[in-house]
Amino acid sequence: MDNANRVPFNGTKEQKEQLLAVIAELRDTQGCLMPIMQKAQDIYGYLPYEVQKMISDEMEVPMEKIYGVATFYSMFNLYPKGKYKISVCLGTACYVKGSGDIYSKLMEKLGIQGGQCTMDGKFSLDACRCIGACGLAPVMMVNDDVYGRLTPDELDGILAKYE
Question: DSSP assignment of 12-75, as one string?
Fold first, then answer.
């Protein structure tokens, strides 16, 4: 797992107890790994290495399998989401109008890769396939705020609104 730009794990004793209770309840159920991982993500908000390791140790399932499931299914997040969730549309209409450049510039400005969160927990960055505002392409959202007809030069001003 990539440790660059990794937000420190801040799990609580209560969260660990909740996870251990879920594992104890479901461990003897056939096909229980994904439901346990889903509950773990509900408890922690994402599946960091430490949570994957708890599941691995308690279930006696190799870490490779846990990580494989976590990275195969898009419903699982390996990184926490920021206070401000930035989503850049990379659907066809947005992409041909330059959303790839917007996405790349945001990764550069925030110092993170797609799917990651800044170290201060303020911003997370994800790509999506369609926001439903194709007429405003290229489009990005910050939480529920939609920004259309974007150019990379506008990003500093937009990010400053959330500082």
Answer: -HHHHHHHHHHHHHHTTSTT-HHHHHHHHHHHHSS--HHHHHHHHHHHT--HHHHHHHHHHSTT
Q: Which residues pair with 88 in a beta bridge?
A: 127, 140
pLDDT band, residue 6 (cuts 50/70/90): low
The per-residue pLDDT for range 129-160, each reduced to its tens digit, is: 999 999 999 999 999 999 999 999 999 999 99
Cβ neighbours for 103, distance < 8 A, ≥ 6 positions apart: 88, 90, 114, 125, 127
What 3-state DSSP class applies to 114? coil
pTM for the whole structure: 0.75
CB atoms within 10 A of CB 96: 11
- CA 95-96-101 angle, 5° bins: 55
Nearest to 126 by CA among 25, 69, 46, 56: 46
Q: Do residues 26 and 38 touch, judged by C-beta distance below 8 A?
A: no
